[in-house]
Amino acid sequence: MKIKMSNPEYFSQTRTNPRQLFPFPEDGRIVEENPPCLSWLPVGSGVTYKVILYRGGSELWSGETQKNYIVPDIPLESGDYTWDIFADGRRRGLWNFTIADYAVKIKRVTAEELYDSIPADHPRHLFSTSDIFEILRTRQTELAVLRRNIDMAYENGMPERPMYHRDPSALPYREFFGRFRDYCDRDLVACSLGYALLGDEKAGAHAKELLLTICDWSPHGPCSLLGPWGDEIGLSCSRCLPSVYDLLWQLLDDKERKYVAYTVRTYAEQCWIRLKKLDYCANPGDSHAGRIAAYLGEAALVLKDSGIQSRREALSWLDYALDIYGGIFPYFGTPDGGWAEGTFYSTSYTRWYLPFFCAVERYSGCAFLDRPFYQRLTQFFLHFASPAHENHPFGDGYWCHPEDKEWPGFFAQNPFRLYADRFGPPEAKRLSDDAAEQNIYLLHLLDVFIPDRASTQAALTGKAENVQCFPDAGFVSMHTDLLNGSGDDLAVMARASKFGSDSHRHADQGSFALFSNGKALISPSGYFGRGYGTNHHFKWTKTTKAHNALLIDGEGQPYNSIESRGRIVECRDDGAVKTAVLDLSSAYPMLTIWRRTLRLEKDLLTVIDEVEADKPVTVTYPLHTLSKPTSEGKRVHVVRGGRHLTISPVEGNLGLPELSDKYDTDLNDGVPAEFAADMPNQYHIYYKTAPSEKHRIVVRFEVSGE
Q1: Which of 61, 370, 413, 491 is least enclosed by beta carbons within 10 angstroms?
Q2: Which tens digits make up the pLDDT trace of 68-80?
């Protein structure tokens, strides 16, 4: 490849849609894994890129690829590096990064090495026969949950064949996949584990009948991962069937093994087609697709020696999965440990790939979990996913709690377990143990009985702090007493993110939530309704008005926009006072400046907003709560969970508050009566200013006993 160095043309690395890759490492980045994956936005199909890495002004390493990412095949010393990319006579331009002296050293493995290390015996995926004794010895609490889930499976019986494809609306499909998760993700998995771990023949027989029933539903029909109705059925099958095939292998005859293996392979092929069609490595922002590379890899592992899959196909799948998880993944999970899609989705999406990750590590020593994001994830969970919190703000599903009639997401799982056991800190391990004792494993048990493995790396987790900032994902959390368990913790959480407002994220840059002893005093508003994309969900829940942000001349932030961004400017803990400063100027096209400062003290949150525009604008100041508010002049009172919140505007000429219990779009708008949802009521507070080019608004949120 010839490189033109004189007066080259430069190619752009500016993102043009919200699902595109963020090039990494960006200019000036401190990199915490060694060697890092270097990634960029592609400039066309079939293009060969040459990547050159410089150290001290001299070329240190170069490589060529037709992919939009590459990992140097040499370890790098800590220190400063410069790199450039060349393609078709054009160049990206020089960027700099620094390898930290504490950077995690990541072992890589080839598809061939991994595939050849897979034994012939079954089970071999989640665990092997030699692991069972130790699992039974150390997982007594979880085994009680397993036995409970097996009993639930017997009561649940067999599923009916799906018929939702006969209805032109999406509602029957949504109803079906909620029930199907019980049959597949819970019942099938539990009974298969009961057979493999406990030798429970009755559970095995039930699992076999359920497995063959599901396989009898053609993966090319309404259950397809690629069908027009939705992909949730195909995703459950892709997630569960490889493990179940492996767990029940001894119970199946030769004909049944071939039948199930064919079904596993068909769903894996659909995963492969979908990833390639998306060009996932260049566009990893598809919410569902990130998990399916793991299912692709799992299928290759369990189908070895099945007679259903060629070695060539298996290696191509494994190579792709290893590339993704050793490189550009996770798109929504950033090196700081935050998850840009919000808490609800973080608790699911950080578990579905674990069976594959752990199998790779067990057979090759390649530990994806040692990468910085996974090590720091428990810090994010501590601040944003604590079971002590009434809800978990930001993104779809934030409202879910055990009493909800919608799928209770977080409470169906224990997101802490594997990460807390491996990386700590102690506070996360305590929450993991508490979750296990509460028997919250309603659905997903595929990662629960994986053999423990200690990290060989020095943990990046660090100790838990009252103030934690996740600048890459764009979240900040401040507590007055997160760690001591005094029962007197006041917490505020806010979002200011480079990730825009598409997918499961909302138009909520600058929005905040306020909790006292886990009770939500100020919270986002809205629900799914009967599922993603209902009128209520799109026209209310995802809008700025449904959040604790600002409206400008009645308008909120653009939805599905990469331009609607925020940035955490500062985050500090000065002891008695904790402060976060957010720059939201890019969130509104009609503003030149919006800076929000949050100051947290023992019983007081002060929110300061500085707003500027090129012309006079009116600011609406929405707030939302789960308890009915009362007003006293400009003051508003909210009582919840034995705590009394007083909201007091002190600067900014806010008018008298308007109180409401109505949504702009009703929960069941456009939903037939037979599918109507019934959810707890929510309440809304609206302050409003007179027009001005500049606004300085100061509001105090004071919390006391009821």
Answers
A1: 61
A2: 999 999 989 999 9
Structure tokens at 247: 């767990």
Q: Which residue has the tokens 């189908």?
A: 303
Residue 612, Cβ density class (10 Å: 0-12 exposed, 13-18 middle, ≥19 buried) = middle
Domains in the chain with CATH codes: 9-105 (2.60.40.10), 115-364 (1.50.10.100), 467-705 (2.70.98.70)
CA separation, residue 262 to residues 211, 215, 459 (Å): 13, 9, 41
| Contact status, residue 426 vs residue 379, Cβ threshold 8 Å | no
Do 31 and 72 form a contact (C-beta atoms < 8 A)?
no
- Distance, in Å, from the CA atom of 493 to the CA atom of 514, rounded to the nearest integer, reads 7
Residue 166: count other Cβ atoms within 10 Å of its Cβ: 8
Indicate the SS3 state at residue 456.
Answer: coil
**CA torsion 568→572→577→579, rounded to 10°?**
-10
Are 536 and 543 in contact by the 8 Å Cβ rule? The answer is: no
Segment holding 10, helix H or strand E:
strand 9-10
pLDDT of residue 389: 85
Paired with 581 in beta bridges are 570, 597
Gap between the Cα atoms of 314 and 282, Å rounded:
23
**pLDDT above 70: percentage of residues in the chain:** 95
Cα separation, 380 vs 428, in Å, equals 10
Which residue type occupies 262? Answer: Y
pLDDT digits (tens, 9 = 90+) for 42-51: 998 899 999 9
What Å distances lie between residue 294 and 239, 349, 353, CA to CA?
Answer: 8, 11, 5
The pLDDT tens digits of the residues spanning 361-404 come to 999 999 999 999 999 999 999 999 887 888 889 999 888 765 55
Query: In whole angstroms, what separates CA 401 from the centre of its chain?
Result: 17
3-state helix, strand, coil in the chain (%, to 5): 30, 25, 45
- Kindly tell me if the per-residue pLDDT of 408 is higher than 70: no
